[in-house]
Amino acid sequence: MVVAWNRSVKGVQAKIRAEFNKGVTDYTAGRAEVVKLVADMLTMVNGTYPRTSAALAVGSTPAQVATGAFVFQINGMPEAKAAVAAGTAFTATTHDITDGSANSYLLSIAAGGTITITMGTEAVGTVPGAAPVCPANEAAIGLVTIAVSGAAFDATSDDLTDGHITDTYTNYTADSNFAGEDAITAAAPAAVTQAAVTLP
Questions:
Q1: Which residues lie below 8 Å from residue 192, measured CB to CB, with a gap of 6+?
Q2: Which residue among 15, 98, 134, 199 has its CA within the 20 to 30 Å range from the CA of 153?
């Protein structure tokens, strides 16, 4: 009788211990979610990112990258950028690509509205090497990928519509619940500055 009672108590203790451990695990997971949520909220208020799409495309000057009108913020300060139909120019010579290779170009914007093009790492084939890093205190607005076959890409004179060029345009945005942050960070790690949050 006593042995059976002891076994019953031990069984109850084991169940209590298991439920307690599960509660600790659930609390830890929940706390991590709260930390991320608070960090995302602070980033939305204080961060650096594009609020709406810049609609990258070939410019009316076809050697350049056009941007539509969009809204962005730098360190929490929102600004509006008017459309640049003619586009932003590549840097002559510096942004060239060897025939049979590919590279990527990050477009970013600083406070005041100046757009910069930063080049990544060239790689042989149709897939670029390492992605460009966004300059400090600028919001990454999109990525242009260029692969060339049959001739080099001459950043001084080539039109993006030329036959030897295959170009792809990716726009970065953060939606209303900031789910876009992960995509932005993956593509351009310095594009989003996320606040550090510590909970007790």
A1: 43, 47, 48, 49, 174, 181, 184, 185
A2: 134
Those residues with Cβ within 8 angstroms of residue 139's Cβ, 6 or more apart along the chain or in another chain: 48, 49, 50, 72, 73, 74, 108, 109, 191
3-class SS at 155? coil
3-state class of 27 per DSSP? helix
42-96 pLDDT, tens digit each: 666 667 889 899 999 999 999 999 999 999 999 888 899 999 999 999 999 999 9
**pTM for this predicted structure:** 0.71
> What is d(CA 21, CA 99) in angstroms, rounded to the nearest whole number?
60
pLDDT range class, residue 18, cuts 50, 70, 90: confident
Q: Which of 146, 144, 127 is nearest to 188 (CA)?
A: 144
